[in-house]
Structures are given as structure tokens and as C-alpha cells.
Write a structure and sequence with these properties.
Blueprint (H helix, E strand, L loop, with lengths): L23 H12 L1 H9 L6 H11 L7 E5 L5 H10 L7 E6 L9 E5 L7 H9 L3 E6 L9 H22 E12 L5 H10 E7 L10 E9 L5
Parallel strand pairs: 1-2, 1-4, 2-3, 4-5
Antiparallel strand pairs: 5-7, 6-7
Helix pairs in contact: 3-4
């Protein structure tokens, strides 16, 4: 994937926020967001969020999403990953299915069916299988808990989400399927990795270029699901 800003020779002017009522930390965050090349590119290319490029990069590297696949996007709002998945599996053309689940309403996306629901609800797996027309070939998750500012707490919360997503994936994936979810660097996801290694042929960490350099964000990618009845 071509990196944002790699095609030009001039230096773009940086946007500045002059609202004096903002806290300094908020002003810095807003300026970074406004000047982020992936934010600018997502707006130009019609993606719901800059996060779309993380899935694009992971897929281009490992060739995961293929036409005809059935995909579940956990915590799908605002829809960036679902957009990418729909294009890759060609669900708008009727060759695959993409289902997004979130507690929030999501604006419609061609080729994607959304449901407002907690994926931890007892009936969620069967409901999503019915929407897909069968077991999933992929479960993808870019979920993250709201940051507290305390590194260890934030790490534990995001790993807990990844563990819940993994448990869900084991219920809905077809043999050979894959799972990808956000985690953070820190080492406390060992239990999650051990579980995934029991159920998938290959488990690895991935750091997309579009993840901010100062972020501890990583993705765990598990491929070759062995099947619930192995």
C-alpha cells in the first residue's frame, strides 16, 4: 500500500487549533488528528476512519480476505473495517457476506449488514451465523476500551476485550478461518496467545505502518482455525 504523502514533493502546511478554551492536551490531540495523513486520506477515499488502512495493510501482507468469504466485524462502529472487508470479499456483488455488530447505530454501508447488539449476548453467535448464512470465515476486531491514561489499566482492559472477541470467534468460525484483534504491547496477553495457539495453526503479532509510531497498539493475527471439534 502506498504511504500517504509519498507522492508529493512539497511540504503541506500544518493545521493549527487556536481555541483558547481547550486544554493543552486536547489541543495537541486535535492538531495531531487534523494533520494525520491517514485521516486526510480516509476522507479523500471515502473510508469511515483512518483505521481502515490498518486492515488494508494486514490483508495486503497476509492475503486473508478473499471473494465469497463470510466476515464478522466486532465493535464495528464507525464502519471502516467493514468497508474494507466488503470490498475484499465483494459482498456488494453478492459473492460474500459481511456482518457488523456494535452497541451503537452505524450508518449503512453497501454490502454490509449491521446489528445493534452486544456480541457477548448468549444468542449473538447463532444470530450472526443466521445473518451470514453459515459459520464465519473471519472474525475481525478493532475494539478498544476508552483510555484512562493509566497504561497498565488500559492494557488490561484492551486485552480483556481481545479475549472476549477470541472466545466469540471460537464459537462462530469455520475450520480454516482467521481472527484478528487489537491488543497493546505489554506482555500480559500471554494467556490469550496460549489459547489461540491451541486453536489456530499460526499466531503472530502485526504492527501496521498506519498505527501511530508512538502507540503501543499491536494486532494479534491467528490463522488456520482447527475447528471447535478438532
Amino acid at each position: 500500500m502506498k504511504k500517504p504523502g509519498s507522492g508529493g514533493t512539497g511540504r503541506a502546511l500544518k493545521a493549527r487549533v487556536k481555541n483558547s478554551r481547550l486544554k493543552e492536551s486536547s489541543r495537541r490531540w486535535l492538531e495531531r488528528h487534523m494533520n494525520d495523513p491517514y485521516v486526510q486520506r480516509s476522507k479523500a477515499e471515502g473510508y469511515r476512519s483512518r483505521a481502515a488502512y490498518k486492515l488494508i495493510e494486514i490483508d495486503e501482507r497476509f492475503h486473508l480476505l478473499k471473494p465469497g468469504m463470510r466476515v464478522v466485524d466486532l465493535g464495528a462502529a464507525p464502519g471502516g473495517w467493514a468497508q474494507v472487508a466488503a470490498k475484499k470479499v465483494k459482498s456488494e456483488e453478492g459473492k460474500g457476506r459481511v456482518v457488523g455488530i456494535d452497541l451503537l447505530e452505524i450508518e449503512p454501508i453497501p454490502g454490509v449488514e449491521f446489528t445493534v447488539m452486544d456480541f457477548n449476548d448468549a444468542d449473538a453467535p447463532e444470530r450472526l451465523k443466521a445473518m451470514l448464512g453459515g459459520p464465519a470465515d473471519a472474525v475481525i476486531s478493532d475494539m478498544a476500551a476508552n483510555a484512562t491514561g493509566h497504561r497498565q489499566t488500559d492494557h488490561l482492559r484492551i486485552v480483556a476485550l481481545a479475549e472476549m472477541a477470541a472466545e466469540f470467534a471460537l464459537e462462530v468460525l469455520a475450520p480454516g478461518g482467521f481472527f484478528v484483534a487489537k491488543v497493546l504491547q505489554g506482555g500480559t496477553e500471554n494467556e490469550l496467545l496460549a489459547r489461540l495457539k491451541r486453536d489456530f495453526a499460526t499466531v503472530r503479532h502485526v504492527k501496521p505502518e498506519s498505527s501511530r509510531k508512538d502507540s503501543a497498539e499491536l494486532y494479534v493475527l491467528a490463522t488456520g482455525f482447527r475447528g471447535a471439534d478438532r
